[in-house]
Every structure is written in C-alpha cells, then in structure tokens.
Amino acid sequence: MYARDGRTVCGFGLCEESHRYGHEPDLLLPDLVAAGILRADRETYRHPDIDDYNDRERLSLAVFEERFGLSLPRSPLAEDALPVYAIMGSPAPDFEEISAWAAAKGRPLPDTHLRLIPACLRKEYERSTNGA
Question: 2: helix, coil or strand?
C-alpha cells in the first residue's frame, strides 16, 4: 500500500494485483504491466497458469521498490542474522514432513527452533502434494 498525507493512494495484495484499491488504484498499473505481472487490460495475469507465487511476489515487491526508490542495506540481508518474531502460532505437527519436502524441492527450510511453517510454504506443499 502506498499512502500520502494520511490517505491511501494505491495498494494491492501480493499475488492479488488485479484487485487494486485507493484513490488512484491504477497508479502502478503501467509498472505492473511492464514487469509482466498483468496484461494491459488491467485484470488478466500475463501468465495465468504461473505456478510460482514467490516469483510473482518478488516481481510485485520490485515494482514498489523501483517506483518509490525503496531499498534495504545489503549487509543486514546478506551477512547479518535477521530477527524473527512469532506473532502467534504453535509448532507444526507436520514440521518434519514439510521440512523434508522443502529440502527435496530446494525450497527455503523453516526454522527448526520455532518449528513453525510459513504460510506460503504450507500452501506450496499442499498444492504440490494434493491428492498424492
């Protein structure tokens, strides 16, 4: 979401770019089209059968980063340990199963200390193993 003077100018959810809101909901539309996320019709995803939501999330975040000149210092991301906070949740009973699947697929592994499964990893696991 991008806000200015206490008002929402524009915003959308990651992987929900066709549902934009705010006083100027289409402000970033040219950028979303240029990034290959949406077609010029404003609503159709360029690749409707895209299977990797992580790629689309990265593309959407890159639109905001480039348009508004946002960045994080490289050293905390590449060298330092970033803090992790569990807002709510409890250890996942299927932690080992999903961790093994993530390792086999080359996906980032969930934290073994907290034993929580990130929602995006759980969704990807469930999509991949549905009916298996």
Answer: strand
Per-residue pLDDT tens listing for the chain (132 residues): 888 888 899 988 888 888 899 999 999 999 998 888 888 777 777 665 555 667 778 888 888 888 888 776 666 666 766 555 555 566 788 899 999 999 999 888 887 877 888 888 888 899 898 855
Per the domain annotation, does 32 fall within a domain?
Answer: yes
| Tokens coding 34 | 């240029």
Cα-based angle 126, 61, 129 (whole degrees, multiple of 5): 10
Domain that residue 38 falls in = 2-68
Closest CA to 99 of 87, 88, 107, 89: 107
